[in-house]
TrEMBL record:
Pfam families: Lactamase_B (PF00753). Residues 1-19 form the signal peptide. Residues 43-257 form the Metallo-beta-lactamase domain. This is MBL fold metallo-hydrolase. Keywords: Signal. It comes from the Bacteria.
């Protein structure tokens, strides 16, 4: 059997078929960039909001090859300067690529939730871990290459060399310190367009949703995903947030993963999160494995294998979290 080199180096070398991001213009001011279906659970969507003077970008792809392709397109799509970049929350698939965006747009101010602002060393640590991962991956690929027959080594030497060139550009990436830390609902003027930044502690300790009232549009990120990752959930606050968001005067809701949603889709994460809480509360003495096995099957994705695997992981994480944080009635 053929030896496998690191998948990471493959992507670093950008020789793997690059998955296409889908840019969609949703309204006068808003473009939505949806990650390809196969990356749905692993990389994030972005939103670009442009007023008459300034643009605001919400999130960046977390996978750096994707981020580079994204930045290339972003430069073409900008009609005004990129004044602000905002992290919807601190998960690496939304946050890390912003370091690369900051490198290309050094004047853009970084906006984060208070909880991330107060713990910004964690963002630096995440980024350093990612960069260390590249170094290890390249070293591992070199080791594996040496065990291949000579003709095959030739191809890999070339791919690894390209990965090294790419890595060199990323090696020195650093986040700049956040410029704006959001502690309460805040308006941001983009030039004849005001957007509202709404902080929550729901999907994580620090989420920001962005309301573009003029376009009846809400950027909800992972908080509004139809099957969100609940491993760090504040269940009660999250359910409350979904209730609050469903009252907003919007017609389009943009999730962190997957396609554009309608306001009525906000019931999907709500129903799923409630089901987890209810299941855990109803079986206070059951262990996580049993709770996963006995969880109602109706939420499980039907056909896609990737989706099923992600779902199983999300459910287990959500049940664990609920067992730790939700009070059970005896
Ligand atoms: Zn997330």
């Amino acid at each position: 059997m053929r030896q496998c080199l690191s998948a990471l180096v493959l992507c670093l070398a950008a020789t793997c078929a690059q998955a296409r991001q889908n840019w969609q213009t949703l309204s006068e001011h808003v473009d939505f960039i949806e990650q390809p279906a196969k990356l749905r659970f692993y990389d994030s969507n972005q939103t670009l909001i442009q007023g008459e003077q300034c643009a605001l970008l919400v999130d960046a792809p977390g996978e750096f090859t994707q981020t580079e392709a994204f930045i290339g397109e972003l430069k073409k799509q900008l009609r005004v300067p990129l004044c602000y970049v905002l992290a919807s929350h601190a998960h690496d698939d939304h946050l890390l690529g912003l370091a690369l965006v900051q490198k290309h747009f050094p004047d853009a101010q970084l906006i984060v939730h208070q909880s991330l602002g107060e713990n910004f060393h964690l963002a630096h640590e995440q980024l350093n871990e990612r960069l260390d991962g590249f170094v290890k991956s390249i070293a591992l690929s070199l080791q594996r290459m040496e065990k291949l027959p000579d003709q095959e080594q030739e191809i890999w030497r070339d791919k690894i060399a390209r990965a090294q060139v790419r890595f060199k550009q990323w090696q020195s990436l650093r986040f700049s310190t956040p410029d704006k830390v959001i502690t309460q609902a805040t308006e941001l003027d983009l030039g004849k367009l005001n957007v509202e930044l709404m902080p929550f502690a729901a999907h994580t300790q620090g989420d920001i949703a962005v309301l573009v009232r003029a376009d009846k549009l809400l950027v909800g990120a992972d908080m509004v995903d139809t099957l969100p990752y609940p491993g760090e959930a504040n269940y009660q606050a999250w359910l409350q947030a979904l209730e609050e968001l469903s009252q907003l005067p919007v017609t389009q809701v943009l999730p962190g993963h997957g396609g554009v949603l309608a306001t009525s889709d906000l019931t999907k994460p709500k129903v799923w999160l409630e089901a987890i809480v209810k299941h855990v509360q109803a079986n206070p003495s059951a262990d996580v494995v049993t709770l996963v096995e006995t969880f109602p099957k109706q939420y499980q994705p039907q056909d896609d294998e990737l989706e099923q695997r992600a779902y199983a992981m999300f459910l287990e994480a959500g049940i664990k979290r609920a067992k730790q944080t939700v009070t059970t009635k005896d």
